[in-house]
Amino acid sequence: MAPVGSRDVARAAIRMALTDSREQERELKARYSKMGIKTAAVDHGGDFIASVNKITERSVVAAKREGVIREIHADEGAVAGATREAISQVMPKALGLNVGGKIGIARYQDHISVAVFFGVGLLHLDEVAVGLGHRAVSS
């Protein structure tokens, strides 16, 4: 098996955020687990501005629940920081609009990536956006 690096972890987070169903999430999670990559995914939605804190909280809670991170300050902060970075990348498209989508989280050793997939709604003219954040923590 080839070494796993930050690109692989980022790819895993993006793929988790793009899953269509819980079944697809479970299959992908099992495949990544065999590679030593821990993953989690969680849905989100609502008014963008009101949702920013909820999205960050959901990321941290999902990462802890799925065993992606330990319940320590550094790990929680890394997921929160990577989530905020990912959100900031989609902010120009989403500001003032309703959003819905999924958050994907992946970790391998000291690499943590968070991807946020957004469907941005304006009447029937939906836009899509993906943001990605990465942090390094001691494993």
From TrEMBL:
Q: What does this protein do?
A: Antiterminator that binds to cis-acting regulatory sequences on the mRNA in the presence of histidine, thereby suppressing transcription termination and activating the hut operon for histidine utilization.
Query: What is the protein's given name?
Result: Hut operon positive regulatory protein
The major lineage groups are: Bacteria, Bacillati, Bacillota, Clostridia, Eubacteriales
* InterPro entries (UniProt xref): Regulatory_HutP (IPR015111), Regulatory_HutP_sf (IPR036482)
Q: Name one Pfam family in it.
A: HutP
What keywords does the record list, in alphabetical order? Activator, RNA-binding, Transcription, Transcription regulation
* Source superkingdom: Bacteria
Query: Species name for this entry?
Result: Desulfoscipio gibsoniae DSM 7213
Subunit and interaction comment: Homohexamer.
